[in-house]
Specification:
The chain has 172 residues and is of the alpha+beta class. The chain is built from nine helices and five strands; from the N terminus they run αααββααβααββαα. It folds into two domains: 73 residues, Winged helix-like DNA-binding domain superfamily/Winged helix DNA-binding domain (Arc Repressor Mutant, subunit A), CATH 1.10.10; 85 residues, Arc Repressor Mutant, subunit A (Orthogonal Bundle), CATH 1.10.10. The chain has a three-stranded antiparallel sheet. Helix 1 packs across helix 3, helix 2 crosses helix 3 and helix 5 crosses helix 7.
């Protein structure tokens, strides 16, 4: 079977992004450089075409996703899974995303209210995780975002987050 077809089938059937490392490891019948070449060719073919699906780099891997311009049509057939985040959870998640690793005390200071409940819900949804302890007195736990966060928000890595200048220009 042609390698590109195998990779296409793997990406199509996976609910999560597949890393190039996973591909080369599990497709060990083929040389790693052939796997990578086939992957890049496939990504280029999908993204250069007028298909309703593209292959995007997200959360450190590759995933097939419906193009944005088809979203409204797809929503008629497939119920979209919402992240279900409250305003306080979004505020807390934003602070963690931009200031990570960050302690609860720092989050509370920025928000001006207790964030324990929001942090608990974000941990339950696997959007954040414990990131160790800081060097302050008491060695407080710090939080950081997860790969799930990157996947849910369609980010390859944290540098894809909009800058404060970009957000200000959107507001204006």
């Amino acid at each position: 079977m042609e390698l590109k077809r195998v990779i296409e089938a793997v990406l199509f059937s996976s609910a999560r992004p597949i890393t190039s490392r996973e591909l080369t490891k599990k497709l060990d019948d083929f040389p790693p450089e052939e796997v990578m070449h086939a992957l890049f060719e496939l990504v280029h073919e999908y993204n250069a075409s007028d298909r309703a699906v593209s292959i995007v780099e997200v959360s450190g891997g590759y995933q097939m996703r419906t193009r944005v311009d088809c979203r409204e049509w797809v929503k008629r057939f497939v119920k979209e899974r919402e992240a279900g985040l409250t305003k306080s959870m979004l505020e807390t998640l934003s602070i963690i995303a931009y200031k990570q690793p960050v302690s609860k005390k720092e989050i509370d200071h920025v928000r001006g209210v207790d964030s324990a409940r929001a942090i608990k819900h974000l941990l339950d949804k696997r959007l954040i995780e414990l990131g160790g302890r800081n060097d302050d007195i008491g060695k407080a736990m710090v939080f950081r975002t997860t790969k799930m966060f990157l996947e849910v928000y369609g980010l390859m890595n944290l540098t894809d987050l909009p800058t404060f200048k970009e957000m200000e220009s959107i507001e204006q």
